[in-house]
Write a structure and sequence with these properties.
The protein has seven helices and no strands. With 195 residues, the chain is mostly helical. InterPro entries: DUF5656.
Length: 195
C-alpha cells in the first residue's frame, strides 16, 4: 500500500509546474526527481522488508514518514487554496489524512492491515479533519494553514507510531509538545486579525 507516491506527484504538479518560468523549473524538477527517487527507494525497501529483515528498514521508515508529512503539507495547501466551505475542508482533509496515515501505520509492522490500524487511521484522520474545520475560521494564509495541519499530523502520527513501536517515552512527548507550542506560537504571530 502506498498512496504517498501518487499524492506527492499530484501535489507537485498542482503547486509547482504551472507558475514557474523555464529557468526556475530546472532546479525544481531536479529536486522533485531526487526526492521522488528517494521515495521509490523507500517503497522498494518496504517491499523487501515485508519478506525478510533488512538493515535499511529504519532509514526507509524515516524517509517515508518525512515524505508523508511533506506530502500532507502540499495536499493541505491545495485543499485550502480551493476555498471550500469549512465542512468540506474537514471532510477532504480527513479523507486525505486517512490515506496517508494508514500507509505509515502499516509500515510499522508491515503485515496485513488490521482493524487496529484502520481504527487508529480513522481516529487520527478525523482529528486532522476537525483541525482543518477549526483552522477554516482562522484568518491565516494557506501556507500557515498547511503548516499547522501538517504539524498536527506530525505530532499525532508520531505519537501513535512511537506507541506501536513501543518507543513512546517522556522525552518524545516533550519533543512533540515543544514542536506544537512552537508552531502554534508562530501561527499566532503571523495571523492578521485585522482583516
Amino acid at each position: 500500500i502506498d498512496i504517498t507516491n501518487a499524492l506527492y506527484s499530484f501535489c507537485h504538479q498542482l503547486l509547482f509546474s504551472s507558475s514557474y518560468k523555464v529557468v526556475n523549473q530546472a532546479p525544481n524538477s531536479s529536486l522533485f526527481a531526487i526526492s521522488f527517487y528517494t521515495l521509490l527507494l523507500s517503497q522498494n525497501v518496504f517491499n523487501v522488508a515485508s519478506l525478510r529483515t533488512i538493515p535499511l528498514y529504519r532509514a526507509a521508515s524515516t524517509s517515508s514518514f518525512l515524505f508523508t508529512i511533506i506530502t500532507s503539507f502540499f495536499l493541505y495547501n491545495v485543499v485550502f487554496a480551493l476555498n471550500l466551505p469549512f465542512y468540506w475542508n474537514g471532510v477532504v482533509v480527513a479523507f486525505l489524512s486517512f490515506l496517508l496515515i494508514i500507509q505509515v501505520l502499516w509500515s510499522v509492522k508491515m503485515e496485513k492491515i488490521t482493524g487496529q490500524i484502520i481504527t487508529y487511521s480513522l481516529i487520527l484522520g478525523l482529528l486532522i479533519g476537525e483541525g482543518a474545520v477549526a483552522l477554516s475560521f482562522w484568518p491565516v494564509a494557506p501556507t500557515i494553514w498547511s503548516l499547522a495541519l501538517s504539524t498536527y499530523l506530525y505530532i499525532l502520527l508520531g505519537v501513535v507510531n512511537d506507541y506501536l513501536r513501543d518507543r513512546l517515552n517522556k522525552r518524545h512527548l516533550r519533543e512533540y509538545i515543544f514542536v506544537a507550542a512552537t508552531v502554534l506560537t508562530f501561527s499566532f504571530l503571523v495571523t492578521s486579525w485585522s482583516g
